Amino acid sequence: MDVNERLEQNQNGSGPNLKPDEKRLYLGTFRERVILAIKASEVGSEESKTVLADKLKAYPDATLLIDQNQAGDDYIDYLKLAIQSGNAYTLLSNNEISKQTTDPYAFVLAAKTAVNIDNINL
Asked: Which InterPro entries does the entry mention (predicted)?
């Protein structure tokens, strides 16, 4: 492949994508950046809200990624937690559902850089 062709692909956003399956699974971020991941089946639990509130306080620079399709109407409660704690958030309404799991993630709290946390689930 020609260097100019590769540069043009990257400018258009059609170049090679690094770990696309991993990014699809974790709502657009890499596994190494995930602080907490909440599955769609866990969305309504009080435990998930409590744990998320604690993690938001512990990681004030982290961003809460919200898949509205997986979270349903409950996304509002989690969004309020992010707003109250001053954390950034991103609403993903057209997120491609991961084919890697039958219970995809509805919320992912992600850092800007690698944090390499072993246990990211509730």
From this structure: DUF1694 (IPR012543), Ribosomal_eL30-like_sf (IPR029064)
